[in-house]
Design a protein that fits this description.
Layout: E1 17-21, H1 25-36, E2 41-46, H2 52-56, E3 63-66, H3 71-80, E4 85-89, H4 105-112, H5 119-131, E5 136-137, E6 152-153, H6 163-178, E7 184-188, E8 191-195, H7 201-210, E9 217-220, E10 234-235, H8 237-246, E11 250-254, E12 259-260, H9 263-273, E13 276-280
Parallel strand pairs: 1-2, 1-4, 2-3, 4-5, 9-11, 10-12, 11-13
Antiparallel strand pairs: 6-13, 7-8, 7-9
């Protein structure tokens, strides 16, 4: 049985996997899928970030709960778990990378080596430190193949927009992603209405909604060299709610790259709200 097309050929399902779990639903979906596949999972959680129900589902000897920034302790825990692989899923509150951070000595040294300090460079460096242990960092889409966006209108019907407008939005979103600004935009009839930056997708959508543009389109893209070890675009129920509030009625997601958190439920929610979810290549 193929567990996931994103797993490396060397993956050994008999050995423990360290789940480095951020906030919200993404880690829970991954955990449930891993347990259903019979994977022995060990938890690296974070105070104030990882869901309490996830933490409670592990025995004390199967989990370590850290403050954000305790890199040395995290690496020691992964080694103690004898994990052959690790998977980093779920966002850490962006502001914690700059405030309320508790860096230990290992983290301070790592940060000092970075020429740029942003989410991509920090998490990339963390992934590198994990791999120095001989532990394989898994693609963060692993085990969630059935939650990925696919090509076409996932909510049914024909595309509710001019293909040229969608193509324009995809071009802008990909360029913003390439420049490491953000991965989402809102466009309307050839005009860029809003670009996502540090504030995140939902705040961008709210800004776009206040402009009351004609038939705005929300587009999410990936970077040309997306590092799927820690950086996977996600789309979920909360974004559908914000889209409805902002009167943005079409979401275009890159197929095979964007995880729809609880895909069946979110697609049904969007359909009821009159929002179309469309996957593009």
């Amino acid at each position: 049985m193929i567990l996931s097309r994103f797993l490396p050929d060397s993956f050994d399902a008999e050995k423990p996997v360290a789940l480095i779990a951020g906030k919200a639903m993404y880690p829970k979906l991954t955990l449930d899928a891993m347990r259903a596949a019979g994977i022995r999972v060990r938890l690296i959680g974070f105070e104030g970030e990882t869901r309490e129900d996830i933490i409670a589902s592990f025995s004390e000897n199967e989990r370590v709960i850290l403050k954000v920034g305790q890199l040395g302790r995290m690496l020691k825990a992964i080694a103690a778990f004898q994990a052959a692989a690790a998977i980093m899923v779920g966002q850490v509150t962006p502001g914690r990378l700059f405030k309320r951070l508790h860096p230990d000595g290992k983290a301070v040294l790592m940060m000092a080596r970075l020429k740029e300090r942003n989410a991509e460079t920090i998490f990339g460096a963390i992934a590198g430190e994990v791999e120095k242990l001989g532990v394989t960092m898994l693609d963060a889409r692993s085990f969630l193949d059935h939650h990925l966006a696919v090509e076409g209108a996932m909510t049914g019907g024909q595309l509710r927009a001019d293909p040229g407008t969608v193509e324009h939005g995809v071009t802008i979103a990909r360029e913003a992603a390439r420049l490491n600004i953000g991965q989402s935009v809102v466009v309307s009839r050839g005009t860029v209405i809003a670009v996502e930056a540090f504030e995140g997708t939902d705040e961008m959508l709210r800004r776009a909604g206040r402009l009351a543009a004609t038939r705005p389109i929300f587009v999410k893209a990936v970077k040309p060299k997306q590092d799927y070890r820690f950086d996977v675009p996600v789309f979920g129920a909360r974004t559908v709610e914000v889209m409805e509030e902002a009167d943005v009625r079409l979401a275009c997601l890159q197929a095979g790259s964007t995880i729809i958190l609880d895909k069946v439920g979110v697609v049904n929610q969007a359909r009821i709200a009159g929002i179309q979810i469309y996957g593009y290549r």
